[in-house]
Amino acid sequence: MPKTTLSVSAIKEGTVIDHIPAGCASRIISLLHLTSQQKQVTVGFNLPSKSMKRKDLLKVEGREITEQEGNRIAVLAPKATIVIIKNYTIVKKYIAKTPKEIQNVFVCPHPQCITNHEQAETRFAVSTHGIHLSLRCVYCERTYQDSDIREYC
Amino acid sequence: MAQPFTLKNIISIADFSKQDILTILKTAREIQQGKISLRLLEGVLMATCFFEASTRTRLSFEAAIKRMGGDVIGFADAAVTSTKKGETLADSIKIIGQYVDGIIIRHPLDGSARLASCATDKPVINAGDGSNQHPTQTLLDLYTIKESQKKLDELTIVFAGDLKYGRTVHSLAQALTHFNVRLYFVAPPSLQLPPHIADDVKGRQIKFSFHDSLDGVLQKADVVYMTRMQAERFSDTNEYMRVKNMYELKAEDLKGVKKNLAILHPLPRVAEVHTSVDTTPHAWYFRQANNGVVVRQALLAHVFGKL
Question: Looking at beta carbons, which residues of chain B come within 8 Å of A113?
Fold first, then answer.
């Protein structure tokens, strides 16, 4: 039997975000502002995965990621699994769902978009094309791939 | 029975169904033929909020409103407004919306009209937002294409000039995806159609191709849509100087073109359509500008539910 132990330690209370595409964990940390909340975050980069070959994984101690937040994560990690842990036990597990519209999460990359000049909530319509996602700014109407997003609200 | 026109705000041509477009064109035709009463906007007060320069669009809107019995207030220069004091667009529109029944807005930033429509419960009509959209220009472009060709399907349409920053090109290319057309996009590589518009066209299974010269394309065209190199949208002056005279259509270039060829231009023109073209039967751009009034009358009548 091959050894199946995880390469990162278990948490007592909090959230595990699994099946993140390799290299995307740091973007999810930015998306959820995890570094600014003084929570303990354990990151696994390029871990072996049966379904993804390589994946990233996040363990956030002391914070329960809401379903709404989970669905935001889906824009960057469409196959992400969110696992809520209490007292070392899994109490909830679900696969993030891609929302039809995502509000006030990403900064529009277009410098001439009105949302970069006024205090306005950004809004992107989300559509899926196979495994790829596209994000269309409701205001400037430009379409982006998730990899084009560089800043978070 | 025709589908009712349901759009309250006129922000993007992407919001229009094919039926919405055809409804506006039909009403505009009926207004032009004198079949519809013109006094449909009596008691309606509109604001024209032009944060960016305009001649034809603003005046044709004001003419349309006044000829229909409505009234209009507004400004043609952002420098005379509280924007100069730092007031946000959303606040300006929220206040103006309390004074009037509808707002017509032109603004230099992309998406400004959509934001404005979220700041008021009054109808907002986009008269151009940055390099994004100019839906009312598109409706009058379509009206002129139909008037010149007697149809909107099975046409070969050439766009030439600044296709990157030209918002009229973006709106019209998207609108034409409702019809069976073949599109040619002629521009220097640095000013070709933006990918997000090309993707929209591609997604609707419209045949199109990119070119950097009108040679070999002009003779195939039923419609040529010429556009100006917009100096005000170039961040690099050297780049503007390099491309500004790249396409200059003269009467002598029109040998061998189709008899029905219509040359359109959203105006103002600089050098891209030589005055020698003006007296040929192919010159439709002045007629096109004239059509702006009836098309905007039709649009206003539907937005205010008067038909």
Answer: 109-111
The answer to whether B67 is a known catalytic residue is no
The pLDDT of B196-204, averaged and rounded, is 91
CB B136 within 8 A of CB B299: yes
CATH fold match for the domains A14-95 and A101-148: no
Q: Is B282 annotated as catalytic?
A: no
Asked if A42 contacts A35 with a C-beta cutoff of 8 angstroms, the reply is: no
User: Chain B partners of A115 at a C-beta cutoff of 8 Å?
Assistant: 111, 115
Let me know if domain B135-289 sits in CATH 3.40.50.1370. Answer: yes
| Alpha-carbon gap, residue B24 to B59, rounded angstroms | 20
Q: Quick check: B184 and B217 in contact, CB under 8 A? A: yes
In chain B, what is the straight-line distance between the N-terminal and C-terminal CA atoms, in Å? Answer: 14
Given CB atoms, is A114 within the 8 Å cutoff of chain B? yes
If phi > 0 it is left, if psi is from -120 to 50 it is alpha, else beta; for residue A38 that is left
Fill in the amino acid letter for B132: N
In this predicted model, what pLDDT tens digit does every residue of B128-182 receive, in sequence order?
999 999 999 999 999 999 999 999 999 999 999 999 988 899 999 999 999 999 9
Rounded CA separation B191/B228 (Å):
11
Strand ranges for chain B from DSSP E? 45-50, 71-75, 102-107, 124-129, 155-160, 181-186, 207-211, 223-226, 262-264
The CATH class that applies to domain A101-148 reads mainly beta
Determine the CATH number of domain A14-95: 3.30.70.140
CA distances from B265 to A38, B153, B269 (A): 59, 20, 7
Per-residue pLDDT, averaged over B177-201, amounts to 93
Q: A130 pLDDT band (50/70/90 cuts)?
A: low
Burial call A32-51: b when 16+ CB within 10 Å, e when fewer: bebeeeeeebebbeebebee
Q: How does pLDDT run across B62-75, given as a tens digit for each residue?
A: 999 999 999 999 99
Contact assessment for residue B293 and residue B136, using Cβ atoms and an 8 Å cutoff: no
